Amino acid sequence: MTSPSASPAALAAVIIDYNGVLGRQPTLAMWTRLADLAEWSSGHISSFQDAFWAPREAYDAGELSDLAYWAKVLGHHPGPRLLRTLRAADTAMWIHTDDRVLDILCRARAAGLPMVLLSNAPHFLSDTLDATDWRRELMTDALYSARLGLCKPDPAAYEHALAATGIADPGRVLFIDDREDNCQTAAALGLRTLHYTGQPADLEKQLLPAGPAAVRTPAAPRGTST
């Protein structure tokens, strides 16, 4: 879904989601490793994922500590060593980025386009992302749910991000997310939106309208046909 409220030439800033856009989704092998570390019943990855996600919004919003979150997932309090292991493995699942997306963002940033990261992420992951080179080099600011105390699609999260861009007119700001419900909330606030479905060309079209895809094919010489 791309909202048509403004032309690409009017774009003044971007608010971009992390996981599912810039960040790659975890693989089955990663989920299996985390489940094994949690000593979950072998072969029951689906039930582990259900347990993992059930309290995740509260964890992302900063309402649960690392210990409280993993106690809900496991059904018991993990010891300090297991807690550190689980937290590190959990974080490691979300830090792999898509080089294709990074390349497009680098080119857009080099052209002067301000970018704000808006991600649902717990404290430890937020700190880890903030320490990356791409975060420091690409993003003018980064807002995380655990620090805001609220998650997308709460409208207040978008309002904080819009304020961080410094652009008063939401119609000049593009919001990019892999979840349609998040895009719908952004659109209701007047932001332009791109529902990202894993196609870098869609990003390039929105962020680099004068890029290679927009180069016109030279006209054929007179007297020839194409």
Describe this protein's structure:
It is a single chain. The chain has 226 residues and is of the alpha/beta class. The chain has twelve helices and five strands. It has helices at 28-37, 45-53, 56-60, 66-74, 80-92, 99-110, 123-130, 133-138, 145-148, 155-165, 180-188, 200-207, and strands at residues 13-16, 115-119, 141-144, 173-177, 192-195. A five-stranded parallel beta sheet has the order 3-2-1-4-5, with helices on both faces. Strand 4 (173-177), helix 11 and strand 5 form a beta-alpha-beta unit. Helix 2 (45-53) runs antiparallel to helix 4 and helix 6 (99-110) runs parallel beside helix 12. The two termini are 34 Å apart. The model is unreliable at 4-9 and 211-226 (pLDDT under 50).
Kindly provide the radius of gyration, computed on alpha-carbon positions and rounded to a whole number of angstroms: 20 Å
Q: Roughly how much helix do the residues carry, as a percent range? A: 40-55%
**Number of DSSP E strands:** 5
Can you give the mean pLDDT?
Answer: 90
Number of helices: 12
Order of secondary-structure elements:
EHHHHHHEHHEHHEHEH
Going by helix content, strand content and strand pairing, the class is alpha/beta
**Biggest β-sheet: strands ordered side by side in the sheet:** 3-2-1-4-5
The largest sheet is: 5 strands, parallel
Shape: elongated
β content, as a range?
5-15%
